[in-house]
Amino acid sequence: MRIDSVNDVPLKDIIDWRWEADGNYAELEVFNPADGELYECELIRDSGEEWGVQFTDVLFDGIRTCVNACQFCFMSMLPKDARSSLMLRDDDYRLSFLQGNFVTLTNLTDDDVSRIVECRLEPMNVSIHAVSPEVRIPLIGKRAMRGLEVLERLCEANIEVHGQIVLCMGINDGEELEKTLRWVEMRPQITSLAIVPLGYTKYSKRFSSSFSEDEEASRKVVGLVEPYQRRARKTIGITRFQLSDEFYIDANLPVPAADCYDGYPQFYDGIGMLRSYLDEVSLLVRDRAEDLLRVGKQLRANRLRVLLVCGEAAHTVFGAFCSRWDAPVEPYVIRNDYFGGDVNVTGLIVGEDLLAQLPSSLRDTVVVLPEVMFNFDMMTLDGMTLEYITDHIVGRGGIGVAAMPNPTDQLDAVSRNALR
């Protein structure tokens, strides 16, 4: 069935539903495909009771797509045979609120802005990148200044924003980065700002290098941002300006302590993942030392080794965990040949590279796959399913299990699946 309206308001998305059906009574128009008829009905519920309604999607009128031509757009650097769903360039403010997607705000109407303010759709996750017109427009596209105008209106309405800068060498770094940081510093509604380096693939026609190849340039970025971090901690008690983990790897610097990450508001933008992993290792060693010893003893008794699959960027922290096992447990780095360039994160590992680079014989080997390399349907970016990959691992004499790439889940996955 399809709910067409609530309280005479047509439904565009699940936000309308939540807003209109917030009370204990709702009038619905429902289309029944069984007979093709439209019915009116009333719903009544007790306080705290759910309506008992489930939707197949959060958007009912389609995803709003991107109108920009960002120089650093990752989708412009995908291989031609990539799945068609990966080519969808979404830029929908509703998904920013509902799912944490970053949006540019360049395709919003004035009615959209009013809706965000009226319904208090916050926090919004906004790609900022640069503030000077002479940098911002060539970087993003001809509608770039519309995004900044909308962001100003959201800040004036006191809507909380998590911002992001994709930093491109020689384009929006250096002096322009300083301008952007000062602009953000004057707008307290932007409670966190992620600064992430450009990532490029071998299919890029514009970029062939980034901060990953230049330690000195990475150190300059860290040094430029640090005064803003110190001021924020001194004045408002949070770091606010957050550098992605890649910058510390590329600069060959230690990752900051956990309290510098303000509770990890941008964890899934690659902000603080390494620190979180290292701290969880310490907690696991302290709180579950007996489990670690027990599983290690079982692995040795069964003459099993464990490979924790990861991308090149996570090799060091995975190694730190593996060193705590009194057993043959080691990180197994997968080089990203599918995308190439400087792509080295665990979440972008594809099945093709994994199967090509795993040993041909996996006898007596437990392969722990990172769940982040799969989507909600447990499919990799190149279209392989978890079942297909684990079958190949079994065919090589091994055991394949999937776990989120954190020490606790990895230990539990080995204990639960490998030692049955």
Inertia-based shape? globular
Q: Using DSSP, what is the number of strands?
A: 12
The succession of helices and strands, N to C, reads: EEHEEHHEHHEHEHEHHHEHEHEHEH
Strand order across the largest sheet: 2-1-3-4
Question: CATH homologous superfamily of the largest domain, by name?
Answer: pyruvate-formate lyase- activating enzyme
Largest sheet: 4 strands, antiparallel
Roughly how many Å is the radius of gyration?
A: 24 Å
Number of domains: 3
Number of helices: 14
The helicity comes to 25-40%
Strand % is 15-25%
CATH class of the largest domain: Alpha Beta
Structural class: alpha/beta
Uncertain runs: none
Care to describe what's here?
By secondary structure, this protein is α/β, with parallel strands linked by helices. It has three domains: 2-44, no CATH class; 74-270, Alpha-Beta Horseshoe (pyruvate-formate lyase- activating enzyme); 278-418. Helices cover 35% and strands 16% of the residues. The protein has 14 helices and twelve strands. It has helices at 14-20, 93-99, 110-118, 133-140, 144-156, 174-185, 215-235, 245-250, 273-287, 289-301, 315-322, 351-357, 386-395, 407-418; strands spanning 2-6, 9-10, 25-32, 37-44, 124-127, 161-167, 190-197, 241-243, 305-310, 329-333, 365-370, 399-403. Strands 2-1-3-4 form a four-stranded antiparallel sheet, covered by helices on one side. β1 (2-6) and β2 (9-10) form a beta hairpin. The longest helix is centred in the middle third of the chain and has 21 residues, at 215-235. The chain starts with a strand and ends with a helix. The relative contact order is 0.07. The model has no long low-confidence stretch (mean pLDDT 94).
